[in-house]
Design brief:
By secondary structure, this protein is α+β, with helices and mostly antiparallel strands. The protein has one domain. 27% of the residues lie in helices and 32% in strands. The chain has 4 helices and 7 strands; from the N terminus they run αββββαβββαα. The protein has a 7-stranded mixed β-sheet with strand order 1-2-3-4-7-6-5. The longest helix has 18 residues. It is globular and about 50 Å long. The relative contact order is 0.16. This is Suppressor of fused domain protein.
Length: 195
């Protein structure tokens, strides 16, 4: 069920994103059973780079799966995925972002910086990364009629990296990535050496 307030929230986020990137996005939409549609906006901040953003996750506050009642003051967020993809080799990655964005409504996921999510399948055809590490984005947040909505960045990671991260922490994984100079914008990158 949609209401004017939730649509005002999305309109505010949409306007801020277009202002941030200075362009109108390419849009795609997907529906999941029992869940309102999730849009994915694609911007091209510089030639060859793609910024995919969910639009729809923030309609409702995120509420944990163990909660019996939706939290009216729970956190709201949208997701940002940034890639270098000059030939659109990973154009189907938007579907994986839509699945991630539907998870709060479908599975009671509450996203927060430092958490990991493994989808159990490649984020796009032919890549090693099957999940993401969540952290703050440069966009930060948006003030809307329903309160603040955070824009959280999701960084693609392999299943092995995600499992290692759950033991050692997100800061340690980011240090490994930085130390090995991995290009985190490249979905075709090799996995980090975690030995």
């Amino acid at each position: 069920m949609q209401d004017g307030r939730s649509e005002d929230v999305l309109a505010g986020i949409d306007a801020l994103l277009q202002e941030h990137f200075g362009q109108s996005p390419v849009r795609a939409s997907v529906s999941f059973v029992g869940v309102e549609p999730v849009e994915v906006l694609r911007f091209e901040p510089v030639p060859g780079e793609r910024a995919y953003l969910s639009l729809g996750m923030a309609r409702r506050p995120m509420t944990g799966a163990g909660e019996l009642v939706q939290q009216a003051d729970g956190p709201r967020a949208e997701l940002l995925l940034q890639l270098r993809d000059p030939t659109d080799s990973f154009g189907d990655v938007w579907r994986s972002l839509a699945v991630l964005a539907a998870a709060p409504a479908v599975e009671g996921v509450v996203y927060s910086p430092g958490m990991t999510v493994d989808l159990g399948a490649p984020l796009a055809a032919g890549v090693r990364c099957s999940g993401v590490l969540v952290h703050e984005s440069v966009i930060g947040g948006v003030d809307t009629v329903a309160g603040r909505v955070d824009v959280l960045q999701v960084v693609p990671a392999t299943a092995t990296e995600l499992a290692w991260c759950r033991v050692h922490g997100s800061a340690a994984l980011r240090e490994r990535w930085a130390g090995q100079e991995l290009d985190l914008l490249d979905l075709a990158r090799p996995a980090a050496d975690l030995t």
